[in-house]
């Protein structure tokens, strides 16, 4: 039966069996392992392991009587000393962790620079991907797009146009290269802070770049949309866009 005292000792950091053995020794005094086992009703297999752990904590001492090992419980005040030592150890750990925080932050920053790739499918996945890249636009990055076509399901065109109309009042800048002249392109031409040029058949897939994110859109069949988060890749596509922008017609 576990007593209230044993539960309190467990909350202070002792194991269940350590609590039982320490309380048993307080009750029966200096004893051999046989008597400890009989009084505590514990399994004999781990008694020495438990006693050694208690000795390491400063809560049990060992003595030799008639060439036989005997064990005694340390005075209860030693439990306070044990707790204080734990506090000191925790404080030291805190100091050590604080000392390496800059390195840990550097590791996180390095990790954040690695390439992240997300693949979405279907119209629901399309909306998720678009919303992710528009987050970069809202931070203040210019949004550029190329290979934009009207000949895809209307719901895709409507979602793009609606999203850009909503953000146009925020004076967010965007430049778009359309692959064909169409009503869709004319609808975009009246969206604020949007510049449009036309360069026929530049790519089979549309590509949008904002900040460190590149979104490649393939509207064929159910639709596959690949979002890449990598500064170097985004910069490469942005440079490609700038070259095409120079030769495209308003």
Secondary structure elements and their pairing?
Layout: H1 4-11, H2 16-28, H3 33-40, H4 47-56, E1 60-65, E2 68-73, H5 77-99, H6 101-112, E3 116-121, H7 122-139, E4 143-148, H8 154-168, E5 174-178, H9 183-189, E6 194-198, E7 206-210, E8 213-218, E9 224-229, H10 231-247
Parallel strand pairs: 4-5, 5-6
Antiparallel strand pairs: 1-2, 3-9, 4-7, 7-8, 8-9
Helix pairs in contact: 1-2, 2-3, 2-4, 7-8
How is this structure best summarized?
With 250 residues, this protein is an alpha+beta fold. The chain has ten helices and nine strands.
Secondary-structure element pattern, one letter each: HHHHEEHHEHEHEHEEEEH
User: Which strand order does the major sheet show?
Assistant: 3-9-8-7-4-5-6
**Strand tally:** 9
CATH topology of the largest domain: Endonuclease, Chain A
Q: For the terminal residues, how far apart are their CA atoms?
A: 86 Å
- The total domain count is 2
Give the low-pLDDT segments: none
| Radius of gyration of CA atoms, rounded to a whole number | 35 Å
What are the main properties of this structure?
alpha+beta; Arc Repressor Mutant, subunit A; Endonuclease, Chain A; 10 helices; 9 strands
Description:
The protein has 250 residues and is of the alpha+beta class. The chain has 2 domains: 4-97, Winged helix-like DNA-binding domain superfamily/Winged helix DNA-binding domain (Arc Repressor Mutant, subunit A); 113-247, 2-Layer Sandwich (Endonuclease, Chain A), CATH 3.30.870. The chain contains 10 helices and 9 strands. It has helices spanning 4-11, 16-28, 33-40, 47-56, 77-99, 101-112, 122-139, 154-168, 183-189, 231-247, and strands at 60-65, 68-73, 116-121, 143-148, 174-178, 194-198, 206-210, 213-218, 224-229. Strands 3-9-8-7-4-5-6 form a 7-stranded mixed beta sheet, with helices on both faces. It has a two-stranded antiparallel sheet with strand order 1-2. Helix 1 (4-11) crosses helix 2, helix 2 (16-28) packs across helix 3 and helix 2 (16-28) packs across helix 4 (47-56). The longest helix has 23 residues, at 77-99. The radius of gyration is 35 Å and the shape is rod-shaped. The relative contact order is 0.10.
């Amino acid at each position: 039966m576990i007593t209230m005292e044993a539960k309190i000792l467990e909350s202070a950091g002792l194991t269940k069996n350590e609590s039982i053995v320490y309380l048993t020794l307080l009750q029966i005094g200096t004893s051999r392992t046989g008597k400890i086992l009989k009084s505590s009703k514990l399994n004999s297999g781990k008694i020495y392991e438990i006693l050694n752990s208690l000795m390491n904590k400063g809560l049990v001492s060992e003595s030799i009587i008639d060439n036989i090992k005997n064990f005694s419980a340390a005075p209860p005040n030693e439990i306070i000393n044990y707790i204080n030592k734990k506090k000191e150890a925790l404080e030291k750990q805190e100091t050590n962790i604080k000392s390496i925080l800059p390195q840990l932050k550097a590791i996180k920053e390095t990790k954040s620079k690695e390439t992240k790739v997300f693949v979405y499918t279907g119209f629901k996945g399309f909306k998720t991907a678009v919303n992710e890249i528009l987050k970069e636009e809202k931070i203040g990055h210019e949004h550029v797009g190329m290979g934009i076509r009207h000949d895809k399901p209307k719901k895709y065109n409507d979602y793009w146009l609606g999203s850009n109309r909503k953000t146009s009042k925020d004076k967010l800048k965007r430049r778009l290269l359309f692959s064909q002249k169409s009503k869709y392109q004319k609808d975009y031409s009246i969206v604020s802070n949007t510049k449009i040029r036309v360069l026929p058949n530049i790519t089979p897939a549309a590509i949008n770049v904002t900040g460190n994110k590149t979104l490649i859109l393939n509207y064929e069949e159910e639709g596959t949309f690949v979002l890449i988060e990598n500064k170097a890749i985004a910069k490469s596509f942005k440079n490609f866009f700038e070259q095409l922008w120079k030769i495209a017609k308003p």
